[in-house]
Structure formats: structure tokens, C-alpha cells
Amino acid sequence: MNHTRRRMLKTGGGAGLLAMLVAAGIVRPGEALAADWNKAAFETKTVPDAIKALGASAPANSADIVMRAADIAENGAVVPVGIESKIPGTESISILIDKNPNPLAASFDIPAGTEPSVTTRVKMGQTADVYALVKANGKYYVTKKEIKVTLGGCGG
Amino acid sequence: MADPMRIRAVAKDGVVNVKVLMSHEMETGQRKDNSGNVVPAHFIQSVTASWQGKTVLSAQWGPAVSKNPFLEFNFKGGQKGDKVQVTWTDNKGDKRTDEATIN
Question: Chains A and B: how many Cβ contacts under 8 Å?
């Protein structure tokens, strides 16, 4: 497993390989319907592009988004990240990781009655800023936190 | 067919805490095997959780979600004995639905 991980790190940046991420699915950029995978957003290569592809422009920094994550992740293949929004009317929560080949890791739609708080585990190739993008009442808010990775793990 | 998910749903003070552990490779499509061939991407793209026919959480995932994904969330209204269903679909069109009873 460690061998493949090393190899992965060396080849991770290849643009041609990114084409392999292309997956079948109906795409409607800027729209995040449950059934339709937002291919355009998941294929972006920088955080600002991903934020744009999710339909947000210039999100406001917010202290009302709480990111629960350790400062240092020993294993980049499994980085627990919990995001809680205290902004009323939160509709969606997205997790973006700077410096990953494709920053957008996950996007959650929060229906009414569900608490705006999700926890999952993500892969990080290296030490980077992790962004939480929250949509509330049609507006976008963002917060970020740097997570240090001592062992990269985009290979899983 | 993928292995079953492990779902735990616990109701407390009108709020149901749901924890899901899925069994999936979550292959990024950026890794190479020993002979240097790219391992094709294979990852869960969408996840939907529902209770009494109502969607309580839906998510879109990229390959950056860790292998054997974990998900935790809370929703209001569920009672002990109700069922919670979770469905995932991956980029190859495989699907899996599992159900748990709220404790």
C-alpha cells in the first residue's frame, strides 16, 4: 500500500490523469440537484474556480461556520472533517481542499429539519487550507483552516 | 455488489443522530498499479438519506472522500422504531441501499 502511495504522490499532478476522473453523469453546471453530479465543479483545479462552479461569487468570510478538524493529520488518506454552520437558513455545505488535484471533495444539501452539521473523512495530498463553503438564504459564506499533513494520502 | 453499509441511528430529545460507514474503494483515478497503468476512478458520487419518504440529507462526493467513507449528520423529527434509508450511487452506476431502525 505504501508503495502505491509513493507512486501516487509522484504522478498526482499529471493533467492527463485528471481526465480519468471524468465520470458518466448528467451535468448542469452551477446547479446541485441531488440526482445530478456537478461534474464541472468537481473537475475544477483551484479553490476559486470550484467556488465559482458551485454558483458562489466572492463568498463572505464568516465566523459562524465551525470546522471541527485536528490541526495536524497524521494520515492524509483519512482526515476527519466536521463542519457546522450557525448561519440561519443554511441550505448546503461544501468541503474544498486547496492543493488537492481537484479541490472540491464533497457537497451536502441540507433540507429543512436537518441540522446544518456534517462530519466525514477526506483525503489530503499535502498540508493545505481546507475551506467550508456554506450557502444560506441564497448567500454564500466561507471559512478556512489549515490542516498539516505528515503523510500524504491522495491514493487512499 | 458492494458490502452492506453500517448505519447507526439514535434518537435523543427529538433529534436523530445518524452515522453511516460505507464500504467502497473510492479510487481516485490518479493512482497507478504496479505495471504503471492508471487505476480507473471508482468512487461514490451521490448519497441520499431518507426517513419516511423524505430526504433528510443528500450529498455529492468527489474522489477526495476517504476510502470506506464515513458520514455523520443529525435530523429532527425521527422517532425510535422509525426506519432510515441510505442510498449511494457510484461513478460506474453501482447502487446500494441499506436501512436501519432508529434506536
Answer: 155
